[in-house]
Amino acid sequence: MKNILVIGAVGQIGSELTMELRKRYGNNNVVAGYRKTEPSEELAGSGPLERVDATDVDKMVEVVKKYKIDTIYNLAALLSAVAEARPQAAWNVGVNGVYNVLEVAREFNCAVFFPSSIGAFGPSTPLDNTPQDTIQRPNTMYGVTKVAGELLSDYYYKRFGVDARGLRYPGIISNVTLPGGGTTDYAVEIYYEAIKSNKYTCPLPAGTFLDMMYMPDALDAAIDLMEADPAKLKHRNAFNVTAMSFDPEIIAAEIKKHMPGFTMDYNPDPMKKAIADTWPNSMDDTCAREEWGWNPKYGLGEMTIDMLEKIRIKLGK
Ligand code: SER
């Protein structure tokens, strides 16, 4: 029997992951943990809801005991651009928060999912076909917290036997909850702006290749990894996972196939460009494929059709 707590349940990934977990494990077995932003009616109406965040250990312990939680998905984080603006807050949530979750998991024997990121790499990492095990010297606070989280998760597994598992997510593209202040957000915004105004001004220059993934694959990745046979996992934490790699020109050309009048120009944001330049152009995710069967369903073409259709409905266009 799984009793799950999602921390960060109103965020970009958390909002959809909570609903998917409820579908698979039963509404009452998945607690949505949130901090400030009020949850949607769907989230609040479909199962248990608690005001609990990664930085409040006492509340976390109370919720874990109350619902007999055995698995924690810790989605709380400040995305890369926001983390550069607020590095102290990013450390508090991304390192102290991860430590708190692992400590609670140790004490109450919970499994833990930790989302790392392409941000865990840096300028000295090989940026093409980035290997699973390679140099990680990120120069952003976001990256520092993600490397710390990967190492802490590995440590808690080895030292205390906590069943901690994780992925290095690429940019996640979705149409339910907007991402909040990441470097890869442009690949979400471009679809909304295409539908709203048929044009988009891109904050990253042409030629900036980054790994990306559509939300349904991101949800499957987390749940499949947590369900994987532990005997087959050599890495456990921080698996490279990717579904596609493109630059702004390529995604714009894909949108144009469906909206011939769509145009894009550029106004690069120096901070986002500097961050993106230190992240992989494309990751090698062979270990995830071999160790737990990672196999994404959506490429750029299928994702673009679905995004345009869903956003049209959402915006009534
Ligand atoms: N989407 C994240 C960001 O851009 C990367 O993990 O910050």
Q: What distinguishing features does this structure have?
A:
317 residues, 17% strand, Rossmann fold, 2 domains, UDP-galactose 4-epimerase, domain 1, seven-stranded parallel sheet
- Assign the CATH architecture of the largest domain: 3-Layer(aba) Sandwich
The CATH topology label of the largest domain is Rossmann fold
Beta-strand share of residues: 15-25%
Helix/sheet category: alpha/beta
CATH class of the largest domain: Alpha Beta
Number of domains: 2
Which small compounds were modeled alongside the protein?
Answer: serine
Helix content: 40-55%
What's the order of the H and E elements?
Answer: EHEHEHEHHEEHEEHEEHEEHEHEHH
Morphology call: globular
- The Cα radius of gyration reads 19 Å
pLDDT under 50 segments (min length 5)?
Answer: none
Mean pLDDT: 97
Q: What characterizes the major β-sheet?
A: 7 strands, parallel
End-to-end CA span = 43 Å
The total of beta strands comes to 14
Provide the CATH superfamily of the largest domain.
NAD(P)-binding Rossmann-like Domain
Give the oligomer, counting copies of the same chain as homo and different chains as hetero: single chain
* Strand order of the biggest β-sheet: 3-2-1-4-5-7-11
Separate helix tally: 12
